[in-house]
Design brief:
Blueprint lengths: L3 E9 L3 H12 L5 E3 L26 H14 L3 E3 L3 E5 L5 E5 L3 E9 L3 E3 L15 E2 L2 H4 L7 E5 L3 H10 L5 E6 L8 H12 L5 E5 L1 E8 L4 E8 L6 E5 L2 E4 L3 E3 L10 E2 L2 E2 L16 E3 L11 H22 L1
Parallel strand pairs: 1-2, 1-6, 2-3, 6-19, 8-15, 9-10, 9-15, 10-11
Antiparallel strand pairs: 4-5, 5-6, 7-16, 12-13, 13-14, 17-18
Length: 319
Amino acid sequence: MINNKHSKLLIIGSGPAGYTAAIYGARANLKPLLITGLEKGGQLIKTDTIENWPGEIKKITGQILMNRMNKHAKKFDTNIIFDFIKSTNFKKKPFFLVGEKNTYTCDSLIIATGATAKYLEIESENFYKGRGVSTCAICDGFIYKNKKVAVIGGGNNAIEETLYLSNIAKEVHLIHRNKKFKAEKILINRLKNKIKKKNKNIFIHTNYIVKKINGNKKVVTDINIENVINLNYKKNILIDGIFIAIGYKPNTDIFNGQLNLINGFIKVKNKEFNRTQTNINGIFAAGDVMDNVYRQAITSAATGCMAALDAERYLEKIF
């Protein structure tokens, strides 16, 4: 039997933005209810090394950081429920949300649903998901010990995955559609230093895109790549696995037609004292679901704090 749960403040999403919003909301005595979503801890749990979290001098994994945030939110009596929101109705108040386990109503809502990894959207990619195609080296890297793999992308995530896999795999082929990488300089320097070593196992293919993923109907066996400048330059690379790290798509599909979106990201007002409010009074957004520029764990946490403060001010006016 599905039960309805009502709260003054409902938060959907359990990444840095969601947990930070919960901590601030709970401290303001708003008794927040947080719905985790299917991926408890968000995409950060796939990060093997975090070394730029203020105050955390030693390296830390994303999983450990999110576990700490979860405990911090619980310390202030945040009600955390493992559920997934399937649909919403924001036409009237209280706002109404339908989950897999329960229905929910709330007086104010903070959306921190984050983003999901993008895929190449080429032939056979779908078929080989879980059979050699992955978006998480930390999750699946151990499968490819002493094997050959490819990483697709040019940002922080792609470089981090390449460096991580280079400690496990026999060969790592990094394929990027542009000449220059978009990753932070410190990561690019680490990549260069790793390549300089005598027993290097990282191979760079810039200005190339993946045209086809091949396999034997059971697992991936090789890929065809093509140069974006000279289409006559083509390569076939024998690999056992391919890790796609080309960015993320905001998780906003269930809000289509209700909230204002720009390229899928939730548009916020960004006005003084109300920077995280959406086009609907009482609904706020935080983290990667509304930020397509900075996309850092610390900025997500910051907007989670802002959203909680904005929600507190809103609730003070209506109660």
